[in-house]
Amino acid sequence: MFSKKFNNQNIIFFTLIYTFSLSLFFLSTSFEILAVHHGPYYYFIAESLLNQNGLVPAVKLFPTKLDLVTPQIGIVFFIYISKLISANFWYLFFYFFHAVCWLFVFLEIKNFSQKNDHLNLNSFLLIVLFYLQPYNLNQVASFSNETIYYPILIYFFF
Known about the structure:
Layout: H1 2-5, H2 8-29, H3 39-50, H4 74-85, H5 90-115, H6 123-131, H7 134-141, H8 146-157
Helix pairs in contact: 2-5, 2-7, 3-4, 4-5, 5-6, 5-8
């Protein structure tokens, strides 16, 4: 079973997703080609966790106008762990986890299409359509919650 998950096709798929995700990240942060929306807010909250300030001032019951307010802090913990592993190159570990999530989605869709071969689903085409949606690409570029949430949602759907 272990060797089935690490065949050439899966390694190539993982490498493509990882490389493409990093490219989107650099296009949005270094070259400012793609819009970075709320990802920097989550990054700031992760930084405050690293500096032992906790989630404050990011999340409060009664925020002031200066505070960042967001109920979506799940991605903060992924960024925080990535920054613990490597402070300067946190995005390498963050997008590695992102690519692993999409690899699991790819494997699950392949399994689903094999079990339901009467539907004539092309699993590779289906995963490419899921991944290349403009909404998903924007979220990947801006390292927001949906970077991890979206593949997990698709995984549990199939």
